[in-house]
Design a protein that fits this description.
The structure is a homodimer of 82-residue chains. Helix content of chain A is 29%, strand content 38%.
Chain lengths: 82, 82
């Protein structure tokens, strides 16, 4: 068993109102020094067996199912199990 | 400048309908071998200067603002800049 993580974030040039809302709330909570906040999605896929072919399939669904490539970037990485 | 990442995921015992929906779509896309999918949130905080105090503050907002500790777990890590 392996865990593959797909992180999906809005492209830097796309406005992120959720991130802005979090950023705007920080001073009220007494937190300073945070310059920017971006909010995105994280998918954790538990895979029974890791192979190059399976990783290629996951890249494929990251692009077609999990993200919108017009406005979002994705990153796939394999997470070491604790 | 440093980037601090907060990952927020539903606790394992909490049902995750979004993850289930993604999981259910995989066979239709010809992907097999994925046992489970969980969907969560990823926050990227750009911080002007990293200190122990700032990291403690970020842990604090991760618990109070970014997650719901009743149903979600969070993890804070500092990301190396490329």
């Amino acid at each position: 068993m392996a865990r593959v993580v797909v992180d999906v974030m809005l492209k830097p040039e796309i406005l992120d109102p959720q991130g802005k809302a979090v950023h705007g709330a920080l001073p009220r909570l007494g937190v300073s020094g945070v310059v920017d906040v971006r909010q995105g999605k994280r998918f954790e896929l538990e895979v029974d067996e890791l192979s190059d072919e399976r990783l290629a399939q996951i890249h494929d669904i990251a692009e077609k199912l999990l993200s919108n490539p017009v406005i979002e970037d994705y990153r796939v990485h394999v997470e070491e199990q604790a």
